[in-house]
Amino acid sequence: MYSRKKVEEKLSNYKKALDRLKEILRVSPDHSYIYDAAIQRFEFTYELAWKLMKTFLGYKGLTEVRTPRDTFKEAFQAGIIDNGEGWIQMLTDRNITSHTYNEEDALEIYTRIKEKHYGFLEELFKTISKEI
């Protein structure tokens, strides 16, 4: 079982990562290293996001999950996240970026991070902040 303090610690760390991701997404992507930095920060923020969800679910006594996919499924059912498919797309993108590098894929994923994923990540912060 997880304590409120544990959830608050994870939420604080998550907020820091989310702010760093937001920071790089505001920079004009004039060079490929901006894409690389954004993707790296996305990967880190994504990892903190699913672990925060897992901890929050445990804190609420809802379930014990082990994988990101199971965590998203349970978080969706519990109303913690609204767009399960969006989170699964994030999982897919995260797996692509961490296992291979293709410039065309990187650009597509960067665009999804900026246009979609960041919004889901930010919404998670707001939802858990309200409930904790």
UniProtKB/TrEMBL annotation:
Top-level taxon of origin: Bacteria
InterPro entries assigned: HepT
Pfam family name, one: NTase_sub_bind
Keywords: Transferase
GO molecular-function term, one example from the UniProt record: transferase activity
Protein name per the record: Nucleotidyltransferase substrate binding protein, HI0074 family
Organism classification: Bacteria, Bacillati, Bacillota, Clostridia, Peptostreptococcales
